[in-house]
Amino acid sequence: MFKGVGKPDILFLVITAAILVCGLIDAKKYIIPNVITVPLIISGVVYQIYHQGYINLVFATAVALIIIVLALLTKGGIGGGDLKLLTGLALWMELQHFLYVVLISSFIGIVWGIAKKVKARGYEKVKEEYFQKMVLTHALGLKNGLDVSIEEELNNNDIVPFGACVALGYLAWFFPAVIK
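Structure tokens predicted for Prepilin type IV endopeptidase peptidase domain-containing protein:
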């Protein structure tokens, strides 16, 4: 892919840089700036219309709607910048690549979240909380004297910057293919 510095290579580098910058900013400040994501979306729409046709544009729109519905259902568990970053990625990527990046990003987010929780509270405390709150209270419906919802206990130690996970997932999926 990087045999010469042509338009596709430069475009790939610009998109990659935008995704990495979003990930770095999200990791530091827990925000993804519109000044990067909105042009990513607009240029993705133009790219889809010009190069791919309307089928991928319909797919990306469907992905954006699904992500928005999921964000509304999770009551703020995913931010607006994450939505725009994922929408931009959906516009610039083929379906199978996008799904793999989302899967890898989600796995990275889960591992990151567990690691943050263990670091902040200790392994034994996290194991006990998980069993009591997640398994007994939520999965089995047993209150067991616990009336505190998980949403009320969220703090900065529990927040995972998903934009950073998306950037890492993107790197994990694409750079092995680029190096070949």
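Residues 7-179 form one domain.
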